[in-house]
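URGENT: need a sanity check before tomorrow's submission.

F., can you look over the Ig-like domain-containing protein record below? I want to be sure the sequence and structure line up before it goes out.
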Amino acid sequence: MRAPWRKSRTASEADGVRRQRCYVDDKVSRVAWLNRSNIIFAGQDKWSLDPRVDLVTKGQLEYSLRIQKVDVYDEGTYTCSIQTKQKSKTSHIHLIVQAKDKQIADYKKRVKQLQEQVEQQLTRQEQDEAKILETEKRLLQEQLTAEKSLVAQLQEHLQQLNCEMEELKGKKEADMRGSTMEEVTDKPENGAELYSSREEKPIQAKQLEEDPHPVSLPHVSLMEKPVPARSEAEEEPESGSGRQWRRLLCC
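Structure tokens as predicted:
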């Protein structure tokens, strides 16, 4: 891997190791190395977690950054910030990393593989979503069918209840009509008797009006024995006491 740094006082390259130099004018200066707003070194303290990065100090005025096995991810701008009592200055070095042809082909192959994996994953997700939608649709259809069946059963049960209520109502009305007819058939007989008994009185009164001298019928006691009728030949002259006694009996 090549890093086309200009071989100058601030940058050098040797055996895959890239070195960025930074010099200070005063040993008491505060120095820091930054990479794309990330602090790599602050003084002698290392802030970066990358093990390929280390600090080179030669004497008291050099403050250089060294990167081993440079990768494309290391490309970018590096800044050396120097702050003194009198003034502050910064030096910027832009690192451009160019990969070899084989590495470029490997990257293209890797990108293609990633694209295929992404497409497969998207296709799988679409298929899964289609299956999920189909399953949900089938479940909803089954639920709707079950609800329709339940509604039909409830309607049939309600219809049966209505029929039973109508039958009970008809039986009740028939019983009421039967009891009413019995009362009606009983009342005319009693009424007829009463009316006939009441009619006799006007008839008797009318007869009395037509016949002002009614014939009084002899009162015959039930205890009396009937006297057999005698013929004229058998009749004998009665004495006065016998006639009187017979007259008393007749009266």
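My own read: The first helix runs from residue 101 to 210. The chain has a mean pLDDT of 74. If you see anything odd, call me.
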